[in-house]
Prior knowledge:
Helix content is 19%, strand content 34%. The chain is an alpha+beta fold. The protein has one domain (22-100, 122-177). The strands form two sheets. It has a six-stranded mixed β-sheet. A three-stranded antiparallel β-sheet has the order 3-6-9, with no helix packed on it. The longest helix is centred in the middle third of the chain and has 14 residues, at 58-71. The chain is globular and about 45 Å long. The two termini are 27 Å apart. Residues 21, 23, 44, 46, 52, 123 line the site of zinc ion.
Amino acid sequence: MRTTIVSLAFISGLSVAQPAHQHGLAVLNLVQDQQSLALELIIPADSALGFEHKPANSQQEQQVEQLETELQQASFLFDIGSQCVLSEFDIDMAGLSSHDDEHDEHDEHDEHDEHDEHDDSEHMDIHVHYQFNCEAISQLRFKGFEVFEGLQHLDVRAITDSGQHQTRLDPSNDTLDW
Ligand SMILES: [Zn+2]
């Protein structure tokens, strides 16, 4: 059931599908159509930052800010060669970043929830979206396993000029060819 929802959302154009949240597992939706390459990465905040709550101190705030800056460089996570030029970038830090505040005006009320029992709704995913124009592309290396110690797997769903692909990458197998 869940798989169906994800793939339908994916086909409808990289809308925000919520895959099963699993620590250590990130999801990459890749759509390549001739010179256009779109990458949408969904990574559990726990795997990227080591925590899944609003920054509790200045050190964690700094961690979030640093990650946000690093993610703006696609080369932080992907090795796609020099033939691609980034044309669009979006990031959703799930309310972790102070830059997200415009969407979170009512979050002050959340402070009363701190003693609530933990449930699935307390998990946080970071969404990053890159859009490239590429002269030619049929290979991509994911560098996230080197960057994020907490990450063990990347589930890839790809639609490319060579068809549809689904695969799982890990630290010993971090390159996609299509
Ligand atoms: Zn989580």
